[in-house]
Amino acid sequence: MMLYHVPALLNECIDGLDIQPGGIYVDVTFGGGGHSREILKRLDKGRLIAFDQDENSEVNKPVDDRFLFINQNFRFLRNNLKYLGIEQIDGLLADLGVSFRQFDDPGRGFSFRYDADLDMRMNTSMATTAADIVNRYDATSLARLFSRYGDFRNAGSLARSIISYRQKGEIRKTGQLLEAVSALMPRGSENKFLSRLFQALRIELNREIEFLEEMLVQALEMLSVGGRLVVVSYHSIEDRAVKNFFRTGNFEGKEEKDFYGNTKSPLRPVNRKVIMPSEDEIAENKRSRSARLRIAEKI
C-alpha cells in the first residue's frame, strides 16, 4: 500500500467528523487513503465506506474488516449504502478536487506543466476527454464554461482563440492548448491564468459541480441527526455551493425564515468562519494553500 500524501487540513477534518467509535462513516474521496486511515484509528466496532471513481485508488485500500472500498463516483452514494443495508450514517467526509497523484501523472493531462494528451478524466473509463470538449464545443459553449468555471472576463476571446487555432487541426495535446491561448495570457500571471483554464475544462468534463450537489443532497438524506458533513474545497465555485447548502439547505443560498425570523435549514454550520490551513502547513505543503474546510451538523 502506498500513501501518496498527507491531505490538507487532515486533523481539522477528522476532528470535525466528531467520530463515535461504533458509528458508520463515509469517505467519498478515498484517493491515497489518508483520511480513511485516520478515521479507522478512531473506530472500534464501527464501519467505514470509501468511494473513489479512479480505479487506481484501490491499491491504497487498507486491509481491515471494518472497511469497504467502492470504485464509483460519489453521486451513487445513496444507492450503494441502501444496497449494503445502511439506512443512516454518522458522518461523511469529502476532500474535493484533483488528487496530487492524478495531478502529478503527466499521462492524465490535468497539469499544464507537461505536454501530454489533453485528457483530464477522473474516471478513465469515460469515453469523452477534455480534448473532445476543446475540439467539439462551439464558441458559445466554450465561452460559457470558461466564464462559469474559470471566472474569465474575456471568456469570449478565449473561445474565439481556440476556435481559430482549431482551423489548423485538432487540439489533442496540452501544449497545443497553451499555444492556442498564448496571446491572451497576462504577463507575469501565466500560471494563474492556465490554472483557471484547466480547472474550467476539468470541471466541465467531469461534471464536478453537478455531481457534488447530487452527493450533498443524498448525504443529508442519509445522515443521522447530529451527524456531521465535512467538506474541503479548493476553488470558489465548490466552496460557494457547500457554503450555501450548509447555511440554507439549497445551493442558491435562498433563506427561508421561521416565525421568529431565524433561517430554516436542516443543517447547522459548525464553523461559522471557513477553516484554512495554517502558515506552517502551507510552508510544509504549498498545495494546501487553497484548501477551505466547512463542517455542518444535521439538526
What is the structure about, briefly put?
With 299 residues, the protein is an alpha/beta fold. It contains twelve helices and nine strands.
Description:
The protein is an alpha/beta fold and 299 residues long. It folds into 2 domains: 10-101 and 208-298, Vaccinia Virus protein VP39 (Rossmann fold, 3-Layer(aba) Sandwich); 106-206, DNA polymerase, domain 1 (Orthogonal Bundle). It has helices spanning 10-17, 34-41, 77-83, 100-104, 130-136, 139-150, 155-165, 174-181, 190-206, 208-222, 236-248, 279-284, and strands at 24-27, 47-51, 67-70, 89-95, 223-233, 256-257, 263-264, 267-269, 292-298. Helix 6 crosses helix 9 (190-206) and helix 10 packs parallel to helix 11 (236-248). It is globular, with a radius of gyration of 20 Å. It starts with 9 loop residues before the first helix and ends with a strand.
Notable features of this structure?
39% helix, 2 domains, seven-stranded mixed β-sheet, Rossmann fold, alpha/beta, 299 residues, 15% strand, 12 helices, 9 strands, DNA polymerase, domain 1
